[in-house]
Amino acid sequence: MTIFGAIGVAGSGVTVYRKWLDAVSDNLANMDNATRTSDNAFQARYIVAKAADNGDGSQGAQVAGIALGSAQGRVVNEPDNPLADSEGNVRYPDIDMASQMGQMIMAQRGYQANLAVVDRAKDAYEAAIRLGSNV
After folding, report:
1. 63, 103, 110, 114: which could join 13 in a potential S-S bond, CB 3.0 to 4.6 Å?
2. What contacts 102, CB < 8 A, 6 or more positions away?
3. Cβ distance 7 to 114 under 8 Å?
């Protein structure tokens, strides 16, 4: 693999991890959104990644799709909520904050690691150029 190949692979990883961070932030931002019990709850988003197969020998990762969580959510009794049904129930997304925070940390670390690879490959490329220029 060349230096440019390393940058390409790490760059594709950065994209996947950025999408993962976007999904986690959407989930966290919507975890307290109440809806009527007759409506669907916000569906958590989960990124599905796969190895990139570009057909030209290049490698990396790519987002294969987005999996959605349950639309059933969880029903909570909140009679004072303006969206409550006749029994005083509302529907919330079934999103666990602890799980989402753990996913956020993993995605953030993966993102940082891939950026570090890009930075190291850039440094190696610059050093190779300096060797050829007798500076």
Report:
1. 114
2. none
3. no
Q: At what angle do helices 3-30 and 97-133 cross, to 10 degrees?
A: 160
How far apart, in whole angstroms, are the C-alpha atoms of residue 54 and residue 122? 23
- Residue 135 CB neighbours (<10 A): 6
| DSSP, residue by residue, the chain | --HHHHHHHHHHHHHHHHHHHHHHHHHHHHTT--B-TTSPPPPPEEEEEEE---SSS---EEEEEEEE--SS-EEEE-TTSTT--TTSEEEE----HHHHHHHHHHHHHHHHHHHHHHHHHHHHHHHHHHHHHT-
Tokens representing 90 are 């509302």
- Answer whether residue 1 shows pLDDT above 60: no
CA dist., res. 61 & res. 15, Å (int): 8
Contact between 21 and 111 (Cβ < 8 Å): yes
Mode of pairing for the β-strands spanning 74-77 and 89-92:
antiparallel
The mean predicted confidence, pLDDT, of the chain is 91
Share of the chain above pLDDT 70, in %: 92
